[in-house]
């Protein structure tokens, strides 16, 4: 639950423990700022984590604390094509976007294409929350259902007053009608399963007396609605301070890529008339814009404690507690340190893997079957390890490819779920009622379980058909792949899952084969011949391509 800090936050500076807490926060902020300054001076790029979109800068309200009525820049809406191109360019750059917000100097619900745009944002940034900031007056049944259906993660309604007269004096709108629509939408969002979160907000200002703020918080918290009371934005007029601890580098310079309806990029939402233009999207490269000389200079000034320019930074509330919270709890996201050889290698590897998407045919070499995959090489290495223990009655699951490894077998059978040439045992591994107990001395089961729906039943049957003292040789894949020769492909396995399936075997040995190179290569259909021999011989249990299980029944 969010509450008004001015009403509920204790004065930490007046207590001993509070003083220690303040010192700890200040120390954390100082350390984070020093690290960030070093990365800036080393030339590292900053990556935003939030994309703030103003898709419209028209509004149906006339809030007294908002400068929207005095805009001199053109008014309009971001068309669908521009929106799509901007989103695509940011996604192609690759910053870790965790939030896409819709606000700016307009009412987002005046954008007729808002739901379609949100759907595209969710598709492009599946890990990001999409947040809509609205005054709620247009939140009728149709628009509410569209917001829920398109996947909006949060709808925050700026109401700014409780008393009808105060509300109308601040916004110029009808309070009762707005409240009714908002409450109906909140109920609809809850009944839809709660996938769209909701909150209300009130900006404390000289126009909202303290008793009205308290009544606002009580009204909505009683209804189980989160309440946000952000600080008053002063729009560069010097009406808000940043607390006794002094200003801290603004989080927006590091965290938010801010885009107006016409593609203008600016450093801050308080630049409501967009006087400090950094670039324009989608024409310009967002990486270059967000790391332009102007942005680098602003960041460096803030980190060095210089908030004198531009003027809107001089007394900004955002450089107070919001910035301290950011620097003490989060950290800026930078591109890798190019002086770090490991990071340099990772960048090069990432570029190679990205290029492989265009060149990868997603198939095995033509006219070669079975293909010489790393997995097959590992299976052969595993079976060779136990070849001298394979004697007596042996059964291998179709197609019986590894018979040549076991010259000591007295009798060699081939098992399949349906009749086929050379198949001597026809049964479902999940329920092999036609196969007698203790029928075999050795069972060879290579890469079969991934195509079996009930692996637990298969594990029980493999135990049952083995004779006392019998040996099970089983391999399973650990990696996803785009191609599977079996008609079904259900599972990938870990050491723990394999151990659990065959826990009834008193003696179990699990071998891991492969390493990060062959694991990545397998996803791109690299064959054994594509790797140097020493790479194929290196096994890393932290990142195997396949697992081999040798289990003995007593």
UniProtKB/TrEMBL annotation:
One Pfam family this sequence matches: SPASM
Q: Which domain of life is it from?
A: Bacteria
Q: Which GO terms describe its molecular function?
A: iron-sulfur cluster binding; metal ion binding; S-adenosylmethionine-dependent methyltransferase activity
Radical SAM core domain mapped to chain residues: 54-196
The 4Fe4S-binding SPASM domain, residue ranges: 250-316
Q: Where is the Methyltransferase type domain?
A: 424-474
Question: Per its UniProt record, what InterPro entries does this chain match?
Answer: 4Fe4S-binding_SPASM_dom, AdoMet-like_SPASM_containing, Aldolase_TIM, Methyltransf_11, Radical_SAM_PqqE_MftC-like, rSAM, rSAM_sf, SAM-dependent_MTases_sf
What keyword terms does UniProt attach to this protein? 4Fe-4S, Iron, Iron-sulfur, Metal-binding, S-adenosyl-L-methionine
Co-factor requirement: [4Fe-4S] cluster
Identify the PANTHER family for this entry: PQQA PEPTIDE CYCLASE, RADICAL SAM DOMAIN PROTEIN
Protein name, per record: Putative Fe-S oxidoreductase
């Amino acid at each position: 639950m969010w509450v008004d800090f001015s009403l509920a936050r204790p004065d930490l500076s007046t207590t001993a423990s509070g003083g220690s807490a303040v010192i700890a926060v200040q120390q954390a902020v100082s350390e984070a700022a020093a690290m960030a300054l070093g990365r800036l001076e080393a030339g590292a790029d900053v990556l935003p984590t939030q994309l703030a979109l103003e898709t419209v800068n028209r509004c149906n309200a006339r809030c007294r604390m908002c400068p929207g009525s005095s805009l001199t820049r053109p008014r309009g809406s971001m068309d669908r094509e521009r929106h799509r191109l901007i989103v695509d360019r940011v996604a192609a750059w690759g910053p870790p976007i965790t939030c896409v917000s819709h606000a700016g100097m307009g009412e987002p619900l005046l954008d007729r294409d808002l739901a379609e745009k949100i759907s595209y944002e969710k598709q492009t940034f599946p890990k990001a929350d999409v947040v809509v900031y609205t005054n709620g007056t247009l939140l009728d049944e149709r628009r509410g259902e569209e917001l829920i259906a398109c996947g909006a993660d949060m709808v925050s309604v700026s109401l700014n007053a409780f008393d009808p007269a105060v509300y109308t004096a601040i916004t110029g709108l009808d309070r009762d009608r707005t409240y009714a629509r908002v409450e109906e939408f909140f109920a609809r969002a809850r009944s839809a399963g709660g996938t769209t979160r909701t909150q209300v907000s009130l900006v404390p200002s000289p126009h909202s007396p303290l008793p009205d703020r308290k009544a606002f918080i009580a009204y909505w918290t009683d209804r189980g609605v989160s309440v946000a009371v952000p600080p008053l934005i002063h729009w560069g007029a010097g009406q808000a301070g940043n607390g006794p601890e002094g200003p801290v580098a603004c989080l927006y310079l590091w965290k938010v890529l801010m885009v107006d309806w016409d593609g203008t990029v600016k450093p801050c939402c308080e630049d409501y008339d967009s006087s400090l233009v950094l670039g324009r999207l989608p024409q310009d490269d967002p990486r270059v814009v967000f790391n332009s000389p102007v942005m680098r200079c602003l960041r460096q000034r803030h980190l060095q404690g210089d908030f004198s320019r531009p003027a809107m930074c001089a007394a900004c509330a955002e450089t107070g507690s919001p910035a301290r919270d950011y620097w003490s709890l989060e950290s800026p996201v930078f591109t890798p340190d190019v002086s770090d050889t490991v990071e340099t290698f990772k960048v090069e590897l990432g570029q190679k893997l990205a290029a492989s998407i265009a060149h990868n045919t997603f198939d095995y070499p033509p006219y070669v079957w079975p293909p010489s995959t790393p997995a097959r090489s590992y299976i052969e290495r595993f079976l060779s390890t136990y070849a001298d223990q394979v004697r007596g009655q042996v059964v291998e699951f179709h197609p019986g490819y590894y018979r040549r490894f076991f010259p000591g077998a007295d009798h060699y059978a081939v098992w399949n779920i349906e009749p086929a040439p050379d198949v001597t045992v026809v049964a479902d591994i999940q329920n092999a009622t036609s196969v007698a107990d203790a029928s075999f001395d050795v069972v060879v089961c290579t890469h079969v379980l991934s195509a079996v729906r009930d692996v637990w039943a298969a594990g029980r049957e493999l135990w049952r058909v083995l004779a006392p003292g019998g040996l099970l040789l089983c391999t399973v894949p650990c990696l996803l792949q785009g191609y599977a020769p079996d008609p079904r492909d259900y599972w990938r396995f870990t050491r723990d899952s394999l151990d659990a399936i065959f826990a009834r075997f008193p003696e179990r040995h699990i071998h891991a084969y492969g390493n990060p190179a062959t694991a990545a290569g397998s996803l791109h259909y690299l064959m054994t011949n594509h790797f140097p021999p020493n790479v194929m011989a290196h096994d890393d249990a932290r990142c195997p391509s396949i697992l081999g299980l040798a289990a003995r029944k007593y």
